[in-house]
Design goal:
single chain, 2 domains, six-stranded antiparallel sheet, about 20% helix, 24 strands, globular, Jelly Rolls, 9 helices, nine-stranded antiparallel sheet, alpha+beta
Length: about 375
């Protein structure tokens, strides 16, 4: 079944009803069932079926295991192929989240814990880009002060966890990184783009006494206590690093060993290149545009509107993002080489090492900070 993969792939989003979900995603995707509380739209995930590209009707997981090198590239292969399951996975997951109500307070494990305790190949690192925020909307991001494991357990058992949670007000354009171990929650009134490792491992510490189908939702206290980072965070929002290029403003939003995310505001044409090293995921957030690529010596256009994503296979190489209604705002995600893709280009533009380092998160939690320290 192998064939040359030279086209971007689109997928049919999966909409997930959630107890905390709202109405915005239903409107975005023109659903007739206006009563549904849709909390999540999964835009790129390996169980989704392709609607175009080389293998329409096949799931992304099937396509990856037919054409792993062509789709993922060397970096994607390293990120997605696990010795635990002996299976190659598409390593990233893209979602839109609509929180009409506050989410449960939760925490995610790292790869090591996921493999040892759950038999799963990946833990979960995730990043949020706030797209819409009602006035005063907040997130929970870590603790107000350091806690011991026993103190945390006692607070949970006595229904007092809310007293020690750090609330942070957010606005559109804010970027937040939840490294494994970060206790976090979205507050009410937020629509966010989420970029994460391929994993659905979530440990719930606290759910505000909420009932679902007449009973409390399951909590995962012991696992949460095992993985929670008990030190408070000094940095909650990442400050994107913005560079001006011809036809596009490129904001580097986040950069971890698992993924990097850029926000492109395109006024004309933005030329991108996978360099055969990694796939790209392009998600339209506002406006309209097209993806132009070359196949068999001919140029082809693929239109992309808000809420739609494509996967650009690593083997495709160079392609162009063309704004048809300016500005066209898109997010681009990929598996980075932190030195070659992030640190060196930004240092060459005169960006301060401290500004680059914080793209990887708070303090010593930032792999970029550790990398830059070795370069000095």
């Amino acid at each position: 079944m192998s064939r040359e993969l030279t086209r971007p792939m689109m997928f049919r989003p999966a909409l997930k009803d959630k107890i905390w979900g709202g109405q915005r995603l239903g409107r975005m995707y023109h659903l007739a069932e206006t009563h549904r509380s849709i909390g999540e739209a999964w835009l790129v995930e390996e169980s989704l079926c392709a609607t175009g590209g080389a293998y329409p009707g096949h799931t992304l997981h099937e396509i990856v295991n037919l054409e792993a090198s062509a789709i993922l590239g060397a970096r994607g292969l390293a990120a997605g192929c696990s010795s635990v399951t002996q299976v190659c996975h598409f390593p990233l997951l893209i979602k839109l989240l609509d929180a009409a109500d506050v989410l449960s307070v939760q925490v995610h494990p790292d790869d090591t814990y996921a493999q040892r305790r759950e038999g799963q190949p990946f833990g979960k690192c995730e990043a949020w880009l706030v797209l819409e925020a009602e006035p005063g909307a907040k997130i929970i991001h870590g603790f107000k002060s350091r806690l011991s494991r026993d103190e945390l357990r006692d607070l949970i058992e006595h229904n007092r966890l809310a007293e020690v949670l750090q609330e942070v007000e957010v606005k559109p354009g804010d970027v937040v990184l939840n490294t494994p171990g970060t206790v976090h929650a979205l507050g009410a009134g937020l629509l966010v783009y989420e970029l994460q490792q391929f994993s659905d491992l979530t440990y719930r510490l606290y759910d505000w006494g909420r009932l679902e189908a007449g009973r409390p939702r399951t909590l995962h206290i012991d696992q949460s206590l095992d993985v929670a980072d008990l030190e408070p965070l000094s940095q909650h929002q990442i400050e994107p690093v913005t560079v001006q290029e011809v036809g596009v403003t490129r904001a580097y939003m986040v950069a971890t060993p698992y993924f990097a995310g850029e926000l492109l505001t395109i006024e004309g044409v933005s030329t991108e290149d996978t360099r055969a090293a990694t796939f790209h995921i392009v998600t339209a957030l506002r406006g309209e545009g097209s993806v132009t690529y070359t196949e068999d010596g001919h140029n082809h256009d693929l239109n992309l509107s808000a809420g739609e994503s494509i996967v650009v296979p690593a083997c495709l190489g160079r392609y162009h993002l063309v704004a048809t209604h300016q500005p066209w705002i898109v997010a681009k995600a990929y598996v980075p080489d932190l030195l070659a893709d992030i640190a060196q280009p930004l240092l060459a533009r005169g960006v301060a090492p401290s500004s680059i380092a914080q793209l990887g998160g708070d303090g010593d939690r930032s792999a970029l900070r550790r990398l830059l320290a070795t370069q000095q």
